[in-house]
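Lecture notes, unit on protein representations.

Consider one protein chain, 215 amino acids long.
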Amino acid sequence: MSDQPVDASVERAVPVRVPPAPQPEAAAVEIPPFGYYHPFPLAHRKPRVVVKADLLPAVSVGSLVMLLGLPLGWLWSRLAPAENILVVQGGKLIPVPLESYHRFDDLVLFVLLGLGAGLVTGVAIWLLRERRGPVVMLAAIAGSLGAAWLMKGVGVAWAGGRYAVTAAPKIGDVVPNAPVLESAWVLIAWPMAAALAYGALAAWNGMDDLGRRLS
């Protein structure tokens, strides 16, 4: 197919420049003096440990926890088994076979009661949300130690009164020997359990202020 000649009389279209469509005015954006990157990022301010405001509540907490040693001492004096002993010639006292194990039972029972009371103490003190912190925790530990000491003292005294021998025993009589605590290490069970319970809850919380702020 041969090319057809172009007619020179035909006018060519002249290109026309189309003006751009008007754009909406952009809102003015304030740019910080350093741009969007700050050369000195502000560090997160951690809350400080509250001491003065927690001193009076801490004293109240420690005193209240210490008083719990009274009912637990009474409970131990009722649950601790006595050791039966035999009166022989010359007024000597000989333990009945297998009865000496009760001395160990008395220690274990005291420790178990202390551990249970310590766990309850730690959880209960943690529920005081507005007073969470090391001040109240130390008060709870000190009060728990005092409660264990009080529990030991009144528990042994009440147990001695319960198993008191009123009449002079005769040869061949079997009399009960009041429960005793032969080791002072049992006193650490209560404060140790309280510290572990409170510390575990604080570690699980994971907040800087332990959730003291209600909002």
